[in-house]
Amino acid sequence: MDCIRGCNFYLKVIVLSAALIYCQTLSAEMPPYVLLEPETNTADGSITEMEIKANLEFHQQTGFLPHLGVALANSSTLYGFYGLRGFRRLWSPLYREQDPIQELLKYLRQVDSHGLLGSDYHLQPLTEHCQLPVPAAITECDLLQSDAILTLSQHLQIGKVNPNQLLKDTEVGKPTTNLSDLLTRAASMPSLFDYFKEIEPHSQDYTGLRNYLSELRSRNAPQWPEIELQPSIKPQMIDHRLVAIAERLMFWGDLPSDWSYLAPSPMVYEDDLIRAVEHFQKRHGLEADGVLGKKTIAALNITPQQRIEQLVVNLEQIRWHELKPANRLIKVNIPSFELVALINNEEQLRMPVIVGQLERQTPIFEDKIQYLVLNPNWVVPWELATKDKLPLIQENPQYLLDNRFSVYLNDFKIEDPMQIDWKQVTKSRFPYRLVQEPGADNALGQVKFMFPNNYEVYLHDTPAKSLFKNDIRAFSSGCIRVQEPMELLWWILRTNGLSDTDIENQLNKKHTNTVSLPLPVPIRLEYRTAYWGLDQTIQFRTDIYQRDTKLYQALQQPATGILLR
Predict the structure, then answer these.
(1) What's the CA gap between 440 and 220, in Å, rounded?
(2) pTM for the complete prediction?
(3) Strand 328-333 relative to strand 513-526: parallel, antiparallel, unpaired?
(4) 52 HSE (CA, 13 A, CB side)
(5) Cis preceding linkage at 266, omega within 30
(6) Which residues cross the membrane (predicted)?
C-alpha cells in the first residue's frame, strides 16, 4: 500500500511538472492577455460564431442590430476584423484579468471631461443590456463594445468633427489611423481603461483645459445678470456694479474667494480689486490697464456655461492635431494674435501678429515655409487693388508715385501711369497690376515668409508698427503681419543650418533676394479661443470670426449624423 501511495505521489509531481513546463512555454510564446478567444469545436462555439456573422450581415442590410436595435458606426471595419478571426467573440471576461464591459463603462462615464458625449459610444445600451446580457444579446454586446471602442479611439486621437466641411476656409489635415490596429491594441492590453488613458491626448494644454472643464462643471454658478457696459470704472471710484464684478472675479479665481469679507462698504475700486481686474485682463488678452471699460465688462458678462462650451470646442481642436508631431513648428493662433516657434514642443519665440479682418479672414490650414524673400516688392492682390487702392488712386493719382507703385498692363510696365484716365477705371474693368517697389515703406517690409498656398497668404514684415499696440489686431487682408520679423528670420535660417555670417551676407544684399530653405519649416494657422497659459492659468480670447458656436453645435450632434473626421 505504501508503495502505491508513493507511486501516486510521484505521478502527481510528474504531471504538475509537465503542466508547469507547458504553461511556461505558452507564456513565452503568447502575450499575457490573449487577443483571440481559444478555438472551440463545441456546438455552442459554432453557434456564437454564426450569430456574430449573422448579426453583422443583418446590420449591413438594415442598419441596426437585430436584438438591441442599435446602429454601429464601424460595421464594415468590424465585419472585416471579426471575419479574420473566425467571427469569434472578442470581449469574453473569462479570458481577461478584469471585466472589459465594466472597464469600458468606467471610462465612458467620465468621457464628458473630454467634451465628448457618452451617447456616441453606446453608453445607455451598454449599461442597460450588456453588464449582465441575456443569451440573445451576448454576441451583439460584443459587437457594441468593439464599435464603442473604435469610435471613441478615433475621436480621442483625431477629433470627432470634420472641420474642413463644417467651416469656411479651413483645411486641417487628417492623420492616418488603422482601425483594425486600434482594436487589436485595445484587446491585447491588460486593461481596457488603461488603453484609453494611454491613447488620450496628454499635452499640458489639453490636460489643463480638460481639468478646468471638469472643475467648472462641478461648481454651482450663481445667477449671472448682465452688468452695464458703461460708464467705465476707474481707480478710486465708487460704483454699484463693483459688487457683481467682485463676485465674478472671485468665481473665476482672479480674486481670493474670501475677499468679500474684507471689502469696504460702499465698495471702492482700489488695491486688491484693481490687481484682480488686471490679472483678469491679462488672461483675456486685454490691455491690463486696470480700467473697467466696455471690453473688460463684456468679458465679465460671459457666463460659466458659455465658457464650458468654449472649452469643449477647444479640446476638439487640440485633438485634430494630436497625431502630428513636428521637431520644428511655427503656430499662429488667430484669436490671440500671436506667433509661437517651437522645437520639440519647447517654445523658442513668441511675438504679436496682425491677422485678417472680419471681412477678409485669415484661413485655417497647415503648410511648410519653403523660402524667404528679402527686400520684397509687393504685387497687390487684384481684389485688394480694386477695393482698396483704386479709390485712393482715383482721388489722387499722385498716390502711385508717392508710394512707389509701378503699373503693369499684362507684362508691360506703363512708364507714366498718370496718363491713365483712372476715373474711367472700374472694378469690372481693371486690367492692371500694381507693384510696390522694395523699401522702408513697402507694405511687406523687409521680408516675407513664403508657404505657397491657394489662399495667397503668407507671413511678412510691416511698416505699420503702431497697430501692434492694439489688443484686438484684426486689420490685414488675410496675410499675417509679424512684429519682430528679423527675429523669426534668424531663427528659421539658423535652424536650417546657416551660420551667422551667411545670414548677414544675405541681409546685406539691397536688391530683392530669395533664400530657399533646405529644411522647410512646418507652419500651422489655427483658431484657439481657450488654451492653457505658460503661467498655468486658463486663457480666453474673443471669438473674432464667430467659429466656436458652429463647431459646438456640431459636437452636440450624434456622431452618426455629423461630418465625421
Answers:
(1) 56
(2) 0.87
(3) parallel
(4) 27
(5) yes
(6) none
CA 508 from chain center: how many Å?
40
Q: What is the phi/psi pair of residue 346, to 5°? A: -95, 130
Residue whose C-alpha cell is 474642413 = 164
Q: Which of 67, 114, 155, 479 is catalytic?
A: 479
Spell out the residues 6+ positions from residue 191 whose beta carbon is closer than 8 angstroms to its own: 97, 98, 103
Written as nine digits, the cell of 354 is 496682425
The catalytic residue among 7, 23, 460, 511 is 460
Cell reading at 308: 464650458
- Hey, CA dihedral for 176, 179, 181, 187, is it positive or negative? positive
The closest of 436, 484, 478, 434 to 458, measured between CA atoms, is 478
Instruction: Name the β-bridge partners of 346.
Output: 343
Q: Map residue 333 onto helix, strand or coil.
A: strand
Tell me which amino acid residue 287 is: E
Our answer to whether residue 141 is catalytic in this structure is no
Contact status, residue 214 vs residue 113, Cβ threshold 8 Å: yes
314: helix, strand or coil: helix
Please identify which residue in the block is written with the cell numbers 471638469: 214
Residue 114's CB is within 10 A of a number of other CB atoms, namely 23
- Return the H-helix or E-strand segment holding 370: strand 364-374
460 is catalytic: yes
Q: Tell me the helix, strand and coil percentages in the chain, rounded to 5.
A: 45, 15, 40
Q: How far apart are CA 25 and CA 60, in angstroms?
A: 42
Q: Which residues partner with 350 through β-bridges?
A: 340
**Contact status, residue 564 vs residue 161, Cβ threshold 8 Å:** yes
Residue 5, number of CB atoms within 10 A of its CB: 9
Between 207 and 263, whose confidence is greater? 207
Q: In terms of Cα–Cα distance, which of 81, 113, 91, 122 is closest to 189? A: 91
Dihedral Cα 255, 259, 262, 266, nearest 10 deg? 70
Closest CA to 175 of 324, 330, 317: 324
Query: What's the pLDDT score for residue 511?
Result: 87
Express each pLDDT in 125-168 by its tens digit.
999 999 988 888 999 999 999 999 999 999 999 999 999 999 99
Write down the pLDDT at residue 517: 97
CB under 8 Å to 65, separation ≥6 — which residues? 55, 58, 59, 71, 72, 140, 143, 144
Cis ω for the linkage preceding 438 (within 30 of 0): no
